Amino acid sequence: MKKLNRIVCKLCGLLMFCTPAMAVEMPELARRNDCVNCHAINERVVGPAWIDVAKKYAGDPMAEEKLLVRVSKGSSGFFGLIHMPANDPDGRKQAEMRELVRFILALARS
Ligand code: HEC
Questions:
Q1: DSSP reduced 3-state for 44
Q2: Domains in the chain, please, with CATH?
Q3: How confident is the model at residue 81, as a pLDDT?
């Protein structure tokens, strides 16, 4: 059994299932704003995994501002062919959108 556990854990490690990010849950804010319909932390759903978004923008000092605009107004062509609709077209939820973008970018540091 022990050996099996070790193998399973190795496999998980390879698949990044044992990384700390696994413990991260989608925040309540992401549920309320329907991000969870298309996104998950560690895997692609309709949109890219948030951990991949975080890695892509790691080290980009403008990432927060860029992503705030794209999440609010919509985005396409960065991760594939599927378009992300605007999540805050009239700009009434900018504080919430910024908090979500910060959450996503912080995943690369966890
Ligand atoms: C209808 C499905 C859908 C919903 C709802 C959705 N997304 Fe997306 N998201 C996508 C797709 C598809 C992409 C990839 C777009 C691209 O290739 O540029 C994406 C990309 C992103 C990116 C990367 C953008 C870029 O320019 O690199 C971020 C950040 C993001 N989503 C955050 C969010 C947040 C936060 C919410 C909730 C407020 C949300 N998404 C809701 C489908 C969705």
A1: strand
A2: 21-109 (1.10.760.10)
A3: 87
Instruction: List all residues whose CB is within 6 A of at least one atom of ligand 1.
Output: 33-35, 37-39, 46-48, 53, 67, 70-71, 75-80, 82, 84-85, 87, 100, 104
Q: What's at 93, amino acid-wise?
A: K
Global pTM value: 0.83
Which of helix, strand or coil describes residue 18? coil
Q: Please give the structure tokens belonging to residue 108.
A: 């690369």
- Residues across the chain: 110
50, 48, 36, 40: which is closest to 87 by C-alpha? 36
Distance CA 2, CA 104 (A): 36
Q: Mean pLDDT throughout 46-72?
A: 97
Amino acid at 35: C
Q: Which among 87, 7, 16 has a CA at the least distance from the CA of 47?
A: 87
